[in-house]
């Protein structure tokens, strides 16, 4: 995604404006809306999968890498 699209997606995610996004698609035809919803499902699924995946790895790496200076 280009920066503008990424900023828009992040804005909607951060502000919980999912309903606003869907309200903006009400003028689409049924087939367009179905394609759009499928596309957004894929985008958000991949985004959250990456976010959770990298987030967990980051937490685990930083949690378990601790040096015992008393030895």
Write up this protein:
By secondary structure, the chain is mostly helical. It has 3 helices and no strands. The chain has one domain. The radius of gyration is 19 Å and the shape is elongated.
Q: How many separate domains?
A: 1
The gyration radius over C-alpha positions equals: 19 Å
End-to-end separation in angstroms reads: 49 Å
Per DSSP, the total helix count is: 3
Question: Percentage of helical residues?
Answer: over 70%
- Unreliable stretches, pLDDT < 50, 5 or more residues? none
Largest sheet descriptor: none
Strand content: under 5%
SS elements, strand count: 0
Nearest-integer average pLDDT: 61
Which structural class do you get from the secondary structure elements? Answer: mainly alpha
Order of SSEs: HHH
Principal-axes geometry comes out as elongated
Protein name: HTH domain-containing protein
Organism: Virgibacillus chiguensis
Pfam families: HTH_11
InterPro entries: HTH_11, WH-like_DNA-bd_sf, WH_DNA-bd_sf
């Amino acid at each position: 995604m280009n920066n503008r699209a990424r900023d828009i997606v992040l804005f909607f995610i951060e502000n919980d404006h999912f309903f606003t996004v869907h309200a903006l698609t009400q003028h689409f035809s049924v087939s367009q809306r179905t394609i759009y919803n499928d596309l957004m499902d894929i985008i958000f699924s991949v985004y959250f999968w990456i976010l959770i995946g990298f987030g967990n790895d980051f937490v685990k790496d930083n949690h378990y890498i601790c040096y015992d200076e008393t030895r």
